[in-house]
Each structure stands twice: as C-alpha cells, then as structure tokens.
Fold this protein.
Amino acid sequence: MSRRACVALLMMLVACSRGGDATSTAVPNAAPIVAGTHIGAPRPGPAGEWSLPAGDYAASRYSELAQITAANVKGLHAAWTFSTGVLRGHEGSPLVVGNTMYLVTPYPNVAYALDLTQAGQPLKWKVRPENAQAAVGLACCDVVNRGAAYADGRIFYNLLDGHTVAVDAATGALFWRTRMGDLARGETMTMAPLVVKGKVIVGSSGGEMGVRGWIAAIDATSGKELWRAYNIGPDADIKAGPRFHAFYAHDQGPNQSLASWPGTTWQQGGAAVWGWLSYDPALNLVYHGTSNPGPWNGPQRPGDNKWSAAIIARDADTGEMVWAFQPTPHDLWDYDAVNENILADLPLGGTTRKVLVHFDRNGFAYTMDRATGEVLLAKPYVPMNWSTGVDLKTGRPVLNPEKVTGQGRKVTNICPSLEGGKNQQPAAFSPNTGLFYVPTNNLCMDFEAREVSYIAGTPYIGGNAPEYAGPGGHRGEFIAWDATTGRKVWGIKEPYPVWGGALVTKGDVVFFGTLDGWLKAADARTGAVLWQFKVGSGVVGNPMTYVGPDGKQYVAVYSGIGGDMGLLIAGDVAANLPYDVRERGSTLPDLARWTSWGGMLFVFSL
Amino acid sequence: MRLTACAALAIALVAPGCSRDSSAAEPPRYAAQPIQRDSADPFVTHDEHIRPGLAAARQGLVLRNPYEGNAAAASVGAKLFVAYNCIDCHGADGSGAMGPSLADGRWHFGGSAGEIYESIYQGRPEGMPAWGTLIDSDQIWRLVSYVQTLGAGKDPSTENFTGRTIARTGH
C-alpha cells in the first residue's frame, strides 16, 4: 500500500471511530509521524479554513496545510495588507471561513468581513457595536481583543465593555448583544469565545480589579445565558456538585473554594477567565484557566484561594466542575493560570495518554491527564527560582522560602517575573514532530506588596514589581518542547519577550512574531530561522494560515504592539497620545527604537 | 477589604495630615472655599475653549485650590493617591499605566487646579471614576495638590534613547 493510500485508510478509520456525531464536519487527524501522537480534539471545517481562535478545539494551532514548507518558506513574500483603523494591541488572529476573512479590532471592537475572492479584498461588511467608553480605563493591560469564533453562519465575539455579540457572517447584521460582565465591578471582556454545540462559552477579564471570576455559556441562537459558573465561592455557585472530583486529596470534598479564603474575601478574589479555551468532545469537557487571586498582597487572603490560579475542567452542557487543579496555590507572584490548555494524545509510559499540556505563568510546563486532572509531568520550561520543583504526590510546587512575597518587604530577583514564563501568547503543537512550540519570556522581578482597599471599579492590586532580563540577558526565547519528557529540544533566543503566539504547519514550518516587529519562520525540527519579515509594528498576535480562493496557502498575522508589554512595560511605545507622553520603562528601554503603535494585517504567500 | 474599611483607612490617612495642617503654612481645613463664584455666570471657564466668532473671553466660574502651594496638603494627597488606588491606574508617581500619565505636563481635560478637580470630582469618559460620589472635596483638593507636583522637572517632549528610564509594573 502506498503511503498516501495508507493515510487515506487511516483517515477513514478515524472518521468511523468518530461516527455517530452526525453534525460534525471535522476533518480527522492525519496519521502521525510520531507514533501515538495525535491532536486531542477535531478541527471544525476543512483544513484550509480557520474558524476557531486556535484553529481547532484542541487549541493546537496546527494546520494540515503543507504548500509552504521548510524547503520553500524562504520565498514567502507579502501578498496584501489591511489597516484595521485602530491602534493599540492587536492580540488574537483573524478567522477565514469560506472565501471570507473576519477580523476584530481592539476597542472599539470593530469587526470586518473581507471578500477574499476579489483583488484588494474589499469589505463585505463592517460592524461597530455600541461599546461603552468607560471600559477603556477599566482594562488592566490595554484594550485588546483576542478574536472571534465562527459557527453555523455566525461570528461571535466579546466587547470590551462586557457584552458578547453574534453577527451574521453573511451580512454583518447583529443577531444579539448580551450583557455578560459588569463594568462597575471592573469586568471587561477581552478573551476569544469558543463555540461548543450551539453554546458560546465566554469569560471576563479583571483579575487586577477585584472581580469574582466566572465562565458562562450563551445560547448561540437566542443570545440567552444558559449557565454561569463562578470560580470562587460556595459550591453551588462554582458548580462543584456530585461530579466534582479533584485528583489530589487536599482538593477533594465540599466547599473547597469557600474554605480557602478568609471571611468574604472571595467576593473580590479574582480568578477571571480571560485566556484561551479548549474542548474535548469525547469527554464533553471545556478546559479553562483562572487568573491570579486578588489582591496581589497575599497576607490579605491567607489560604489556598481556590480556584484562583487554577486549571478547571467543566461539563460543556451544564458548566459543572469536573476537576480543578492549582498550579500555584495561594499565588504570591501574579502567576495567573489562564494560559491555554492544549489537548493532545501522547505516548507516555508505554501507552498513549489523553493529556492536556499547559505552560503556566509560574514557569512549569504541566503534562496532565485531561480526564482526571492528574499531573503526569511538571518541569521548568524557563529559568525559575521561586520553586524547586513540583511534588508529583500532591501536584503542589515546593516553595523557595527566599522568594515568598508579602506585605512590607521587598523580595528581589524572583524568576519568572509576573509576566510569567509565558503569558497570553499561545503555544502550538504539531503531531508531525510531536513537539510543542512555545513563545516564552525570560524576565525576573523584585516584588513589594502593600495593603490595599477594595473599591469597586478601581484596581485591586497592592504591589509593585519592576522587571528585568533573566539569566543570559535575553528577554525571551522561542522554544520547542517535548511534553513526554519535559525537555527543551531547541530554542531561538530573542532580545525581547516573545509576546506573539505560535503557528505550526504540516510543512514543518513554525511561525511566530516578535515585539520588535519581525514575523519569523523556523524549521519545526531544528529551530533554524528560515525567513523573516519586518512588519509595521510589534507583533502581539498569533499567525494563522488558510487556503485562498486561488488555491494558494496564505499566512496572516496582525501587527500592532500593545497589551501588557506595549502599554504598561515599555512606556514610551504607548506614548503617542498628546495627553499621555510616557518615559521609557527600564524593562525594555530600547523597544521604541524598533516599533511604534500600529494596526495592520499582513498576509504572506509564496 | 470592604468599602467601610477603605473609608476608615482614608480617614486614618488624613488624620496625620490634619496634624500637619496646624502649621502656619496651611489654611484652616474647614475654612477652605473650594469653589469661588467670580461672576454670576454659570459657565465654567477653560483656557482651551474655542470661542465661536472670536467672542471675547467671559469670566465664568473659577475653581480655586485652597491648598495651592501647600506642600503638607500635597503630601497627604500622595497618601490618598495610594489609598484610593489611583496609583495602580496612573502608575507610580503618575508615570502612566492603565490610565494616562499625570507626570508629562500634558492634559486631556486641562491641567489647571480647577480642571484637575473637575476630572477627579466628576470623572472622565474613558473610565476615570467620579470620585465626588465617594470622597469629600477637601480630599480631592489634596489630591489635586499632589497631582500638580508630579510633572516637576520632567521633559518628556523629545524621546531619546540615552535618557533615564523608570521602573514599571506590568499586570
């Protein structure tokens, strides 16, 4: 049998095994080259489309497209560009469904549909929903938006002012606009929704504003809220019922969350859901992280502060909590656990395990059993010193007592910094190589906490934490990671934190963008940089790839510096307003030599 | 901490300032007249107003800071700047963070004492809270006094790559 025929047969077999899901239009995974290695959840729609924020439910950011390869990527050139008309941080990526590209801008969250069949990509429509201006000042880390999700002819996305909208993908008509967050309590919305079986799953930002974090499902057709689960507080509110079973004994039993906060501090304890979601259709579980607890000043909230800084698995239909795990119990370093949970089936200990892989802000990469919440492996993927390792009997980090922060003392040289080993910039996974591709930060910090009052609608932080380059002096590295062994396979050192996400393709090319404005392509197997292009502004978004109406493979990425790095850390990069001229921040003192604000889409082809 | 505790903290912070108020430089606290009506015209005067038809400037309401030039009031204002979480929006020393810099000598809504008072009292459209709903005008004037000290000695007009840098905190 030829290899091609073999692949086709395998695809049919996989398709059969997924039979019964009559509504699924999933393209089955191709046969992996690394035995036992698969993407853990299917991709909706054909391989040439990109209809979900990460391309698929597994959050893999892997594409089956292979016209662009490690051998020919050096011939990539800019094909066309589009100005979003908005400056500020362009996180996320566009979607492509059929012959239309969909973009969502930072605040005011304009959505565009571009007709890819015509030269010049004219607009099919443009949507500018009502979006309260007050939201601008309540967003912690720039007025970003991490993109839209497509399902059944509709585009779903969140507005900074706490609304979720559904737009007709064909006409731009607004189907519904549902208020989900409360601005008066500091709830803004920046995350990209995930659509699961007719439910739009969303969460809010506000971990620095003393919110009480939640995740909710909205009926895709009617816009009505179907369920809402808080992440902290009484069991009934967090939907921890009969199905809840954490893997570790210290996390089991009733009222785990309520008992881990003093008094009523949980009511403004953070645990916001501002990151990426993933979904396993076989288990019917949605995976999400939660943000840091509020405030940063730990002595104001003794206890584990469950389920802040946690990874949570919930039933997609009901929101019930099925398991939960805290990478950083009683977080004292602003180590949110919101980073993406990538679903993969990996060969571990002689069998194929259904795992999720999570690169936490705290600097550990976790390979976990996604059905049970058991930590199979946890290894540092960046330089770190706040913990000496994860105890696999309990899943808990072993603390370095010298790096424990608290009110009234300055703790120096903590690694990683509060930006984490990785932040919003999502990693990618290739079943071709079996490797994870991770944009990382190499920053350390001093941390000084102070008492802070909760005043609704204002920040609830209570700490200063100046940051600087970690060991080696470079501030970032793009790495390839083997999640079965917990080892770095290769790395590309970068002068700045790698704040843009990753894309990996079947052509064994991995793409990522940098704060100083380069889009780079590297060999997925060796890490050799094969191609780079200087886009107009720093990249904090995620490259994606699609097939155009002409049958060619394209790669698209936003250029538009911002987010936490661009707005808060760099200082002068954000200083292009006549009433807001900022001095340079010491963390990235030279970044403004390389980039200024922007808001452009760049599209490349061979 | 609940709001009541917060208010108690703010009062506690003012208390040491009050003792400093007894110095000769400080006007008696409750004698302050924050709003002076210089004319019967309800129009609030701003330097930046465009006057249609080049009409002559009219003197309307003027807000005067009873603590103008009062270092003790500004030092209480610095404590209030932390207590009311202004610091985590506008950055340490007003260097800019979630909210704009207050240390650049540039103002979206005017930099006179009265204009800053208005910004704090009634809030501004892009998320600046209307603090007049929570705190009294005496505290607002102390905040104004502090905020007006933040731009001293800074020249951020020309960006360069050799000058000083400041520590910034990300979120």
User: Anything to note?
Assistant: The longest helix of chain A spans residues 3-17. Chain A has a mean pLDDT of 94. Chain A has four helices and 40 strands. Chain A touches chain B through 58 residues (CB under 8 Å).
